[in-house]
Amino acid sequence: MKNMERELVCPVCKEMYKQPLALPCTHNVCHVCASEVLLQHGYLCCDPTSEPSSPAATPATRSPRLGRRAVPKPDRLDRLLKSGFGTYPGRKRGTVHPQTVTFPCPACQRDVDLGERGLGSLFRNLTLERVVERYRQTINISAAIMCQFCKPPQLEATKGCTECKSSFCNECFKLYHPWGTQKAQHEPTPPTLTFRPKGLMCPEHKEEVTHYCKTCQRLVCQLCRVRRTHTSHKITPVLSAYQALREKLTKSLAYILSSQDTVQTQIAELEETVKHTEVNGLQAKEEVSQLIQGLCAMLEEKRATLLQAIEECQQERLASLHCQIQEHQAMLENSGMVGYAQEVLKETDHPCFVQAAKQLHNRILRATDSLQSFRPAATASFSHFQLDVSRELKLLTDLAFIRAPEAPVIDTQRTYAYDQIFLCWRLPQHSPPAWHYTVEYRKTDAKAKGLKLWQRREEVRGTSALVEYLDTDSVYVLRVKGCNKAGFGEYSEDIYLHTPPAPVLNFFLDNRWGFNRDRLAISKDQRAVRSVPGIPMLFAAERLMTSCHLSIDLVIGDVAITQGKSYWACCVDPSSYLVKVGVGLESKLQEWFQVPQDVVSPRYDPDSGHDSGAEDTTVEAPPPYAFLTIGMGKILLSHGSALTSRDPNGCTVPLPPRIGICLDYEQGKVSFYDAVSFRELWECGVDCSGPVCPAFCFIGGGALHLQELVANKQERKVTIGGFAKLD
């Protein structure tokens, strides 16, 4: 009991609670304190003392704290009443819109809405009152309770009356409870300063509460229960609410009591953190002080250098000006040079005069020139010694602590999953720079009970990274955070990437045999091909009007698949006229190359959505070819039926950025995917009785290129400094 005093102190008066009220924010405050707070905020409140019928309601026995409370001035009361606060005699109902009372909770610093009735809608926390009374009895701080009706000197109270809500000595109790009156039936109780009702009463209807509204989370009486405000609310008997809350509280308390070792460990950790905080704070202050002192020392050194330059220039100018002054003073009438010249003119000996006058004449000429073209030897202005410190002042103004990098932004256009995951990101425009990054990823599994641990790639330099050793046909979630001297920043938004359904097959376009070099151009790296119909297509224009025969140009991969599952992807130019991507038996493809180039393959049916070669075999046998038809930015999906010109929209889908092909050799099945979202576009069977090769067909102009392996991006590959797992 002695350790819970801070739980029993009112946040306003800093004393133990007296008639505490339960606020909607779950905090408590004394009734008197709440009234004073509302009065300070301009609300009119009823007297929080006992009822007028109580003997304790006399002015001489009211609380001394209420006696010291400032009473609002009459003009302020009139202004408050006119504005709609409170009630007053003669006020008509509905003349002013009812005002809701807002109470500033001193515990949580939030404004709590008390509704129109203000404090009158709050329940008195009787349980807290009982705890406070037991606490007072435990620590023996209960002072003697004096009789509230004795004239000085007051006697100690010996009895209390719950009905009168007052404490009496023996004589006063008899005086206020005379025989033969109704008050004589009041049962005496031990004296106390707080008189509580026998049960919790509804503050609005003064009825005993019997139910609990789960929707409003409030105790209600029978009259509250039938009001429209609780229509369709979940209302339960107060006994059920008591049992449920008591069980929850008991379990929570038992858990806390059983976790005392954990609490002590966490307290020790927090105390250690406090020590580190104090030490690191002092260290940070010292570092800042040293840096500022270094700046001040550099500024002082720079100041001395600049002042020395000004001093040297000033002395040089003063010396020149003093010399010029002396030269001009020599030209005065009573100066030495003029007097000497006058005496030389008196010389009558011609040779001697010439000897002396020659030297003097040169000085006179210089003085004459100086007099005729007078200009001070030095300027008095020091304007060229002005400093422009605007840039430095801005730097000093902007001088602040280093901020950690902001959350990176994942570049979804460049990020993709293939044989590995290529992750690319950038920092926001005004983000502080990052020294390095940390990439974290983990595999998501909906069937797993718990989340898998994050795997981390640390010390990533640059703004991209390769993530390898991934499972096929899986979804991975990735995130990035930056780091600089200030520490790690926030994580980027999570990005989910789906890995291919099978191991990636790496191959090149075969440029050694079969394809028409006049109409097909394969790149030097053998990963791209372009169809250039040229003149042969013009010659076929007449046949286009009379028959369905077109030239088909075929190119295959340089790898044949003989087992397992394989996946590859390619990008088709949206402006291509007609392109077919798929697979075929190597032997059948070689036969295809023997067909003249200006004659269509007998297995091609221009009315079908896909080239399957089914016309050459029985219905049960799988076709030797399986091609997905692409043209003019669309993919043709036949859904197993022949395409008719009457419904062209129901069987075409837009061309995705990349097309994925997955061959299951053992199952004899090929699937086509949107390689970005891995949504399956079409699936069909194919003859896998022999080696199967990737194949690509062109009708008219078109182009495609194979998806580059992520592992081949050496120029964008980053250095990984470490590998770890996160909880």
TrEMBL record:
Domain spans labelled RING-type: 10-46
Source species of the chain: Otus sunia
Domain B box-type: start-end pairs: 197-238
GO MF annotations, alphabetized: zinc ion binding
Ranges where the record places region Disordered: 50-71
GO cellular component: axon cytoplasm; cytoskeleton; main axon
Family: Belongs to the TRIM/RBCC family.
Main location: cytoplasm
Transcription in keyword set: no
Start and end residues of each Fibronectin type-III domain: 404-502
Gene3D superfamilies for this protein: 1.20.5.170, 2.60.120.920, 4.10.830.40, Classic Zinc Finger (3.30.160.60), Immunoglobulins (2.60.40.10), Zinc/RING finger domain, C3HC4 (zinc finger) (3.30.40.10)
Coiled-coil ranges per UniProt: 260-316
Protein name per its UniProtKB record: Tripartite motif containing 46
Domain COS intervals: 345-402
Compositionally skewed regions (Low complexity) per UniProt: 50-64
